[in-house]
Amino acid sequence: MRENRLKESRLxxxxxxxxxxxxxETFWGERAKEIEWYSFPERILDQDAxxxxxxxxxxxxxxxxxxxxxxxxxxxxxxxxxxxxxxxxGQIRKFTFAQMTEWTARVAGALRGLGVDTxxxxxxxxxxxxxxxxxxxxxxxxGAIHSVVFGGFxxxxxxxxxxxxxxxxxxxxxxxIEFDRIIPYKPLVDAGLEQARHKVAxxxxxxxxxxxxxxxxxxxxxxxxxxxxxxxxxxxxxxxTDPLYILYTSGTTGxxxxxxRDNGGHAVALHWSMQAIYGVDAGDVFWAASDVxxxxxxxxxxxxxxxxxxxxxxxxGKPVRTPDAGALWRVIAExxxxxxxxxxxxxxxxxxxxxxxxxxSNYDISCLKYQFVAGERLDPPTYDWLVQHxxxxxxxxHWWQTETGWSICANLAGVExxxxxxxxxxxxxxxxxxxxxxxxxxxxxxxxxxAVVLKGPLPPGSFPTLWRDHSRFVEAYWSRYPGFxxxxxxxxxxxxxxxxxxxxxxxxxxxAGHRLSTGEMEEVVAAHPAVAECAVFGAADADKGQVPLALxxxxxxxxxxxxxxxxxxxxxxxxxxxxxxxFKRALVVKRLPKTRSGKILRQTLRKMVDGxxxxxxxxxxxxxxxxxxxxxxxxx
Length: 636
Ligand code: COA
Ligand code: AMP
Hints:
Largest sheet: 7 strands, mixed
Structural class: alpha/beta
CATH class of the largest domain: Alpha Beta
Helix content: 25-40%
Bound molecules: coenzyme A, adenosine monophosphate
Number of helices: 19
CATH superfamily of the largest domain: ANL, N-terminal domain
Strand order of the largest sheet: 5-4-17-16-18-19-20
Radius of gyration: 24 Å
Number of domains: 2
Oligomer: single chain
């Protein structure tokens, strides 16, 4: 019976998926006609000189026009485009499409006034304020490339991004607000600029009343005066393949990867995704409770909802303690959110403080039609809790990455809702050809775990390259299994084709929905003068999903106290990467287990740290070392 229902409900999804597979150019060509172009693409899909797949070559458009001006022209000027809901400052402000257009044109003009031209880079180090979205759109308006750096990153991270992107201008604010804590940004920005080799010509600071700063350097400008003095700038046509933004994401080393997003593919994919995946259309209210510093914030706070003519909610608060664990329900009810998207870790925080979800009864959330989660694995207890407390609302786990920019697997709310399966991210979204490979690159059968890969070309919206590093793009993503994109995630498909994502198979971890590199943490820990070598892994954590844990070997003759060492290492990681790493534990061990050829047995260690079953590797040089590590891990 259940089997039959499953098969029946898949008909429409399946026909759409097959269409996208058998004739991608017609499928995406049709989707491209749904947005406005200054000149329609000459080719739907082709390859550039580097061999990278490119969508919609020859087309010209402007992403800001699609997100704002065109809605005003179509008579939606008075509709609210952005709701800024900020419990940490006690404000709710609403901006119509007409107001957003006018504001963005002014900021675009102000950027022009600083010499920012098409193709120039602008870095944003901003908290969750509407100026951040306006600045992103303002860059798009004049063809400049924005690169948003998450406000929780420490100065060295900012410096690395400044040196890679080489921006003309840096936009920031005087502070961010974490719960009730003011985080002054200016000292962080000053340190980042100081540490960077590249010299940024202008720094514009949004003064927030919670923390006014002194502007003394000749390159510094006050945001409101800067904006007031500007002449509004119109939208300029850009090529479909021109970059819209660079978003740095953690790789396996200390050097983050500059994921490039183009204008055309991005606009077409996100416009379609709002309706097909999230089940919303123009006039509906959509809320992605993420941060503009992450890909979810780019795609589904700033761009996707506005491209579709939806109202987007921008929330400067937390799921708990702003003021309580009813905050999410309050926002949904107050702004009549139809489709809501958040990371599971946020619901775990709510569940911890309000296990029976009692605070929900203070609000009428009957407006909510779909609940989406992503960013990390949705653990079954959290899924069950959500299903229990959101009766009649489908809880949809969907899987995606900074690199793809939108969802690879999902249950398409706007096409046809399939029967969900706990622990699964459902089926591949049309355009993604997903396979599960073994070590040798052979496809594995149902329920067998392996590397999850995607056959090229990836659909529109996915990254065509890494910023000024195409060889790394090829090497990191396309060389392991030629012709297939390596997602870095492991998982399997069941007998119905449902996909289960089980976690990363590389040195990337997800901490409270934040993507971080253990390789980078190792570089920081290894720099401590007492440390001979180290390895950092993600350990399962009931609240944050994963937290990093370091195993450290001391240099001969070092007898530093283990607690003192841990305190110093924690401080080093906070200063170099940021508090968001949640790096709190470093355990001293005598040796790290290695193969006879000297390679650290990371796979085994990863499993041990994570509390998963593991087998004694046949290649290990000294099996006794694993007993010692087991004993040390028991002490944590
Ligand atoms: N600016 C400055 N510091 C920040 C920061 C920011 N934007 N974000 C996090 N931090 C700091 C926190 O203040 C905390 O510092 P502390 O160790 O001094 O207390 C540290 O980083 C760890 O933060 P976090 O792990 O986020 O814990 P939290 O208790 O502050 O918040 C959640 C818990 C669940 C509310 C939060 O992690 C969350 O909302 N996560 C979802 C992330 C997300 O949306 N990801 C996108 C994928 S969809
Ligand atoms: P980011 O690039 O920050 O979006 O992080 C992408 C990574 O987050 C993926 O490679 C996965 O490891 C993880 N991830 C995202 N969504 C999910 C999901 N729904 N289930 C499991 N893991 C996920």
